[in-house]
Amino acid sequence: MLPKWAKDNRTAVLEEAAPYVGMSDEQRLEVLRSVLRAGARQLAMHSERERLMEFRDPLPKSSIEALARLRRDRKVGADGRAAR
């Protein structure tokens, strides 16, 4: 049982998402642009900018296997082009 001041996860998520539910695509795009600008500013000021820009989060093994299966099933080459 949660204390009275605490919110269950569903309620917390719904409250956090509420401002975005009724937004138009244009409004959501402006929010996205704002977030991207903030991220770019933070990255520009970071002392290890180049290292951060070069980092690539590795795909989990399950994703690599799923992509291989999809390529095989769709007969798409590893380069992403349709096999002939």
Descriptive key words:
mainly alpha, 2 domains, 4 helices, extended
Descriptive report:
With 84 residues, this protein is mainly alpha-helical. It has two domains: 1-45, no CATH class; 56-84, no CATH class. 64% of the residues lie in helices and 0% in strands. It has four helices and no strands. The longest helix has 21 residues, at 25-45. The chain is extended.
Helix count from the secondary structure assignment: 4
Overall number of domains: 2
Poorly predicted regions: none
The tally of strands reads: 0
Structural class: mainly alpha
What number is the mean pLDDT?
Answer: 89
User: What is the element string, with H for helices and E for strands?
Assistant: HHHH
- Portion in beta strands: under 5%
Radius of gyration from CA coordinates:
21 Å
**Helix content range of the residues, please?**
55-70%
Global shape:
extended
* Main β-sheet description: none
Cα distance spanning the termini: 60 Å
Concise overview:
By secondary structure, this protein is mainly alpha-helical. The protein has helices at 9-21, 25-45, 49-54, 61-74. It is built from four helices and no strands.
